[in-house]
Amino acid sequence: MPENFRRSAGLRRSPHVALTLLLAACLGQASAQAKPDDSIAAAQDAAASAPVVNSSMDAPLFYQLLVGEMELRTGQAGVAYQVLLDAARRTQDEELFKRVINIALQARAGDQALSAARAWRDSVPTSLEAQQMTIQLLALLNRPAEIAEPLSALMALTPQPQRPALLASLPRLFQRAAEPKKVYASLTPLLQQAAREPGTRVAALAVQARLALQAGETAQALELTRELAQAAPELDDAMQLALELMPTRPEAEALITARLQAQPQNNALRLAYGRALARAQRAAEAAREFRTVTETSPETAAAWFALGTLELDLRHAKAAETALLEYLKRLPEKAADEDAATANTEARQQAWLMLSQAAEQRGDLKAAESWLAKVDKQHRRIETQFRQASLLARQGKLEEGRRLLQALPETSDEDVRAKLLAESQLLRDAQQWQAAYEVLARASARLPADADLLYEQSMMAEKLGRLDEMEALLKKVMTLKPEHHHAYNALGYSLADRNVRLDEARELIVKALSYAPNEPFIVDSMGWVEYRLGNQNEALRLLRQAYAARPDTEIAAHLGEVLWVSGYQDEARRVWQEGAARDPKNEALKETLARLKAKL
Predict the structure, then answer these.
(1) In the chain, which end has fewer C-beta atoms inside a 10 angstrom radius, N or C?
(2) For residue range 479-534, what is the model confidence (pLDDT) as tens digits?
(3) For 282-288, which contacts have Cβ atoms below 8 Å and span 24 or more sequence positions?
(4) pLDDT of residue 42
């Protein structure tokens, strides 16, 4: 028994109150309060006519409870636990078992709490609460291998209509389990049995799929999700699981698209699907889903905002402005409460910032300034300063813009990181590669363990032709953050673009795709390495996939080149023209056109 359990008092309630309750139970009545003289007779008559209820507590039990509470009062929690647990076993009193478990938990003695819960189960095997408490404590103590037996007992005691709800509570109970694979393995036999019963089939499939996902068993999770979608097509459980599986199991997306084909008006699912596509950097496809919602349900403000964000990312400035203005129209002027008012204010501020950026993309700097003037600059200091600096740079005042960013305060490492990234981005937009590299080198020196800063520095090293340094920096990023898929992709693409170490390049890009399947820029890199390896048909397939997901100008340059050399020159020109319309200064596109001596 832990030392802190022996010493801990563990008693929240006054011992005098506890003793009073014990005495009241022993005497069979509460202590009477004083009454006015004229009511004494009536009270005596009522007492005389009331039936006598004797307490079942005998003298030894009373003494045992009294000793337990007094030991607890003097800090002997371990002794109190033993004395009261013995009393609970003798009386089979469920409230007394709860008291004993509470004493152990307050003393941070989890094993003793579990022992008491098991004693409770043994003493009162039909108690639902005893089974539930045992399961909760086993989960808390990370002992999933022991859960199947009490859970089976609990299922048997639970009325049939309530069993689905019982099963549905399991993922929440184990969502922070230290060993989710063991949880999944321990509960699978019981859940498979429940899935064979009509009344619990849907709940069991949903829970098993969720536990498999939590355990990282994505193949099993996908298979169970498919079964669930077939068993309960009217419910959203399978769709939620499919959305969560999309990043690691691209096949799950087919379940979502099939449901949307069957239920085209399911805007809640369409919005969730659009957000999942946006997270996967599939901006064009995400915009398509949000656009569909705005067409079928124009009052849905969230769809307009998401569409505006994506159109801005795709450099469709006019379309972004249209969507964001529609969003602002739908924000209520008055809010129901203070929290809603704060959220509306934040939303407006963000929309104004984005409208400023869209106007800048169109080259309308006056409109950009006008939108920016509406924003609370104190609350969104870095964002507004960056936009202001960008406007200054567009007017030939780059150094003034830099000074504006350099004046930002540094109250934390995050402030340092944000302001230096903002300054480097300003210089990158102005194609000042050396200055951007120097800013990022200073940032990395101040925050040497920041993988993202090192990655950005590597990109500037590449721009400066320092390829060995770029490779060394990217390998350092991979060491600091092994799941940094951008680093694998960047190095793999650089090798492919230089037409060297192509097998290694392919391995690096495959590694990147393992972390971010279907991410368009990585798919583009894979298409480019396949092109360099001479696999033109596969290259075309991949590059078309990447361009459809994100019609970026650099992807357009790659797709256009492979189309051009494959004999599809008209299609190549169309793709290049689309890319040039978005970003006419794009270096990759200009280099490609010059090298192939192609005219738009």
Answers:
(1) C
(2) 999 999 999 999 999 999 999 999 999 999 999 999 999 999 999 999 999 999 99
(3) 282/518, 282/519, 282/520, 282/549, 282/550, 283/310, 283/313, 283/314, 283/520, 283/549, 283/550, 284/314, 284/548, 284/549, 284/550, 284/551, 285/548, 285/549, 286/310, 287/311, 287/314
(4) 52
Amino acid at 98: K
Helix, strand, or coil (residue 354):
helix
Angle at 183 between CA 182 and CA 186, to 5 degrees: 80
Encoded tokens for 34: 């004083």
Domain boundaries, the chain: 1-124
One-letter amino acid at 75 equals G
Q: Which two tokens stand for residue 358?
A: 């869209």
Q: How far apart are the first and last CA of the chain?
A: 82
Q: 149 CB contacts (<8 Å, ≥6 apart)? A: none
Specify the 3-state DSSP secondary structure of 249: coil
Count the residues in the chain: 600
What DSSP string runs through 22-82?
HHHHHHTSPPPPP--GGGHHHHHHHHHHSPP---S--HHHHHHHHHHHHHHHTT-HHHHHH
pLDDT number for residue 266: 96
CA distances, 8 to each of 78, 85, 101, 285 (Å): 8, 17, 14, 60
CB 134 within 8 A of CB 150: yes
